[in-house]
Design a protein that fits this description.
Chains A, B: One of its GO terms (molecular function) is oxidoreductase activity. Two copies of one chain form a homodimer. Chain A is an alpha+beta fold. Helices cover 38% and strands 20% of the residues of chain A.
């Protein structure tokens, strides 16, 4: 190992090789709670593709695994370190190489922060839609590696839809270029999409060509409060089947409503069982579309509907949704006051028609396992995040949390759902991936992993 | 071989095994001209996944390759038979299994014709956008296997964007299910997209889950005629960078204009060097968007612009575009009157900003190789189809045609383009795929092919 550190120090610039124990600890894990992690032997922060190649070759020769990391905002443990591994952090590869406004693409290094790219392309009159919750800190490389989602997906899709091409350093140290910079192209196997979402197990992404869109029209926004989750689910189904194209269709359950009111009182009715937040960005049709969605919510039994009359009010309505995570963290801290509150953040997507049944099922599971479970999610996509609140210092509470997690997975898959809508597999969902795709699917995964990384150098133990 | 036919006859229903030499000849090739093909030993038309499994197992045991075929409307020879192979035609697998209007997906067998699916989902108030030129006869399985494009792509993308999941029979005879039926999902490697566009080289697609969209608004349409290709290219760049989202942005060059006027006089100005056809389907904004696009065309130097005032007139304008292929066939027949006229249909995509330079380059190549080359294409995507007209009975003419084809490929790749925008690799573009993606890209293709089809049973010699 000392040899490897010496070699890494020789091939990388000053300051790019970290061995300070405090810094190693910083790079142990992403934001997934209650998922195992190890301590790396060394953390490297290359700045160029050539430096990544040097790292991969050095690690391969030493037989030491590599764990690629972005901003470590992931929620499935995909970036969690392995004891003795090389953590390859891409955060110093943070250059926006090119923005082409006519051909509508940008070329970026993987360490560019999502919000930085969004701002840079907005300055060119364009838009990079993907907006994971972590967008102000997460990197494009991490977004691509996990195929990150966000609130925009109901209309604009997940990260994969915006990745036109990649540069990837393979386990062999060779540099692969995939995809294209043209608007259209179908040459050969879609290697680009194979690497998107592969969580660093097939190669290290060193450059990304992302497709851009015209700037969106201003959004009009409403919130609707429902007396039952069934009524909220019915409203989502009616909006989806009504031919509307909401740019946002989010759900908060009663646990979240109460937690948000406790964190920052906004006057939300906490007797409501669910809140829907909807937005449209359909230009001159937006006012009409919003009025129709309002009518759909009322017809589905909404207790109250508030439509924002201007952008300031719309931002107010969005604030409740944005407070979901800090509110649940405060709720966890209040529930287990010794600082031992932990949240298992789950992520499941079900057919939209199964939304209400899924919400009811989660409520029953919370009662059965005697744990608070708050649900927030991208209702328009059928993508829910049940947040299971446990006492991390109480093994029984943690065991019940894991039991509830498994029960939620089982319920969702039984409804024709998938074990991850946007957070990815990492370590958290490995068993459930196998449940979902079965032995043939797993065998194909292993065959591809074996073909591209025969010595299992790259992020071993994740996904497959 | 007799043994294999006996076994296939035993495992398939009556009429599903064809050995009549006339029928074998019918199944020799797709619509790619001047691309090699062989004669299969037997053609099978299974109706179920279980029957496909039986065919794959029987062929594997006999060591005989399988060539999957849809409606044979492909333009790259990907479905061309190999001497002595089993042709596995999916045309009898033509059931629409399910249409779910709320969750917005349909489940279909691969032999369902694109137009049949489009009609069925339209009856449910929804839309399946992909519209390859062959949509009235080509099958969804073939569309998926080649990742087919069409005129809608400038706004709605290629087939891949609509494939949520697949059922695939692997070379081992195992049945793989990929993807999902939910709106969103990122579980594991994106095997779905790996099979899309793999042209039958990795597995036989036996079921497809396609995502659906709300019905589109009525389109408004215009045509604009330009004195130079540079002016037309400038208009395309201005429309693309202006934030418009045309639902169609097509180009016809002067050769096509003249050919169309010769086939069916429509009063088009044949002194124009290029025609652009644009449409918008932006609802209540459409009229304003169309007027702005008209102004952009005029500012770019259009000789004339005609906007359709109603749907009948819009259909008239579309007719010129739809006549492109038959008009060029008549042109080829008129040019080489002994029935020996052949067309090498090319397919290249370049950055939109390179459109005008590409058109000029093709004109120079036509002069250099002394052959007529008509260009039609999806200008909004930078995707052009140069149609090289040769005398197929004159080896020198065919050789010049191939020379012009290679020259066009070289020019396009040099501009940052891709060797195929939507027709695929098949046999026609194999050498150019290698030029485009290089040795590392090819090695990764071969590694994946080897991992999934180690005995090279499935469509050997195509793509890789």
């Amino acid at each position: 190992m000392a040899d490897l550190v010496t070699r890494l120090t020789a091939v990388l610039p000053d300051g790019a090789v970290l061995t300070d124990p405090d810094l190693l600890r910083v790079h142990q894990r992403d934001e997934a709670d209650l998922v195992p992690y190890g301590t790396p032997a060394v953390v490297v922060r290359p700045r160029t593709t050539a430096e990544v190649v040097a790292v991969v070759r050095a690690a391969a020769e030493a037989g030491v695994p590599i764990v690629p990391q972005g901003a470590r905002t992931g929620l499935a443990g995909a970036a969690n370190a392995i004891d003795g591994a090389v953590v390859l952090s891409t955060v110093a590869m943070d250059r926006i190489v090119e923005i082409d406004p006519i051909n509508r693409y940008a070329v970026v290094q993987p360490g560019v922060v999502n919000a930085s790219l969004a701002a840079a392309v907005a300055a060119a009159g364009l838009r990079y839609p993907p907006d994971p919750g972590s967008w102000e800190s997460s990197t494009i490389g991490g977004n691509v590696a996990t195929n990150a989602g966000g609130m925009c997906c109901v209309k604009y899709g997940v990260t994969a839809e915006y990745v036109l091409g990649l540069e990837v350093v393979l386990a062999s140290g060779e540099v692969l270029r995939t995809g294209r910079r043209t608007a259209k192209g179908v040459a050969g196997y879609d290697l680009t999409k194979l690497f998107v979402g592969s969580e660093g197990t097939l190669g290290v992404i060193t450059e990304v060509v992302v497709g851009l869109r015209p700037a969106a029209d201003t959004s009009l926004t409403l919130i609707a409060l429902f007396p039952t989750t069934a009524a909220a689910g019915a409203a989502v189904a009616a909006i989806s089947s009504g031919g509307y194209a909401p740019s946002l269709l989010e759900l908060l359950d009663q646990t979240h409503l109460k937690a948000i009111e406790a964190l920052r009182p906004m006057g939300l009715r906490t007797d409501a069982k669910a809140l829907l937040l909807a937005a449209v960005d359909t230009g001159s049709r937006a006012a009409g579309d919003l009025a129709e969605i309002e009518a759909v919510c009322t017809a589905a039994g909404a207790l109250e509907v508030f439509a924002a009359t201007d952008e300031v009010e719309a931002a107010e309505l969005l604030r409740a949704r944005r407070l979901a995570h800090p509110a649940m963290e405060k709720f966890a801290a209040d529930t287990y006051p010794e600082g031992s509150g932990g949240i298992i953040v789950d992520d499941i997507a079900v057919p939209r028609t199964a939304l209400a049944a899924m919400l009811d099922g989660i409520e029953k599971i919370a009662a059965e396992y005697a744990l608070p479970i708050g649900v927030v999610g991208h209702a328009g996509d059928g993508n829910l995040h049940p947040n299971i609140v446990v006492d991390r210092l109480d093994p029984d509470s943690v065991a019940r949390g894991r039991g509830a997690f498994d029960e939620i997975m089982r319920l969702g898959l039984g409804m024709g759902g998938t074990c991850t809508g946007e957070h990815g597999v990492g370590l958290l969902k490995k068993d459930w991936l196998e449940q979902e795709i079965g032995p043939v699917g797993m065998a194909v995964h292993r065959a591809i992993k074996g073909a591209l990384d025969p010595t299992r150098l790259l992020n071993p133990g994740k996904v497959v």
